Inverse folding.
């Protein structure tokens, strides 16, 4: 599980406007520590810098005090080194309460980009009944949501940090497209295909691409290549990718990984497995393939599957990251 935390003993805090945050252990309270803005003045602010290993939507939890001395909290996640507060977590969390509550929790969801991010705390005003601008908190946590999807149910980021760009689930058709999606530098394509006879191909950006004979590649079926030898099947100057390598047995499941730089030929590597004859006494088929698309102008932002017959089920997920 991907978790990013800040606690009361972290010393990498950066203060803004000359304020000095304070941290200490408080043994007389049920919490074991707190972190307080030092001057207790309006517009006090500080931030921590944390590395987030994956992009995605995080569930945020802040453990804090509510008190008749506390102010109104703004919080945000900000990739910039600019210390200006970004209020995309809490835009105005009123910490006033009477009587005092030492242990309270507040929650939010926030989208965070992979990389180093500043987590900002800022006091901006106070409740009219509050006597000061205090902020006491003991921990904050970011937990990545929906980190372990499966192909058919996935709606958010998988465990490798990629985000879902396109999703297809159909029960009929021979030409099936993702439609246009946001191009990313790295693409991971998962697909499941079920049809009575299979000979399927792939095209990238088929609705807008005017180039022909731009695909070439090699593959093996069950470790066997051309003419039953170990040498690969090879194809050059093709209009489609993976032409007729489908191992005509159904259903199929496959993965493709694509390096998707606009100014380079697109490199594709993949693996495929299909059921072959049903039952544990019959081995599945496998195929391994490596292809390239000789386009050095555009990123892939559309993937189309071309099949020889109507499918009875086709699922495709496209994940991506920069």
């Amino acid at each position: 599980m991907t978790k990013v935390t800040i606690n009361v003993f972290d010393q990498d805090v950066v203060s803004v406007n000359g304020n000095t945050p304070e941290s200490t252990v408080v043994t007389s309270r049920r919490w074991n520590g707190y972190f307080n803005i030092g001057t207790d003045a309006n517009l006090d602010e500080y931030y921590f810098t944390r590395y987030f290993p994956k992009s995605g939507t995080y569930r945020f939890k802040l453990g804090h005090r509510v008190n008749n001395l506390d102010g109104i909290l703004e919080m945000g996640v900000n990739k910039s080194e600019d210390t200006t507060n970004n209020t995309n977590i809490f835009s105005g969390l009123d910490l006033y309460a009477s009587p005092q509550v030492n242990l309270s929790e507040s929650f939010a969801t926030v989208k965070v980009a992979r990389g180093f991010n500043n987590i900002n705390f800022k006091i901006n005003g106070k409740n009219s009944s509050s006597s000061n601008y205090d902020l006491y908190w003991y921990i904050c946590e970011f937990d990545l949501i929906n980190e372990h999807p499966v192909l058919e149910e996935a709606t958010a980021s998988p465990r490798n940090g990629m985000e879902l760009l396109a999703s297809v689930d159909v029960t009929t058709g021979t030409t099936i497209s993702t439609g246009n999606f946001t191009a990313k530098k790295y693409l991971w394509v998962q697909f499941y295909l079920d049809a009575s006879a299979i000979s399927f191909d792939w095209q990238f950006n088929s609705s807008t691409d005017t180039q022909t004979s731009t695909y070439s590649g090699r593959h093996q079926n069950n470790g066997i290549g051309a003419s039953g030898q170990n040498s690969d099947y090879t194809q050059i100057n093709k209009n489609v990718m993976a032409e007729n390598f489908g191992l005509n047995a159904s259903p199929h499941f496959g993965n493709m990984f694509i390096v998707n730089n606009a100014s380079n030929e697109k490199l594709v590597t993949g693996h495929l497995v299909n059921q072959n004859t049903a039952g544990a006494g019959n081995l599945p088929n496998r195929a391994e393939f490596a292809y390239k698309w000789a386009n050095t102008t555009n990123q892939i932002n559309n993937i189309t599957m071309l099949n020889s017959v109507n499918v009875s089920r086709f699922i495709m997920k496209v994940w991506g990251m920069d």
Remarks:
- Confidence is low (pLDDT under 50) at residues 148-159.
- The chain is about 0% helix and 45% strand.
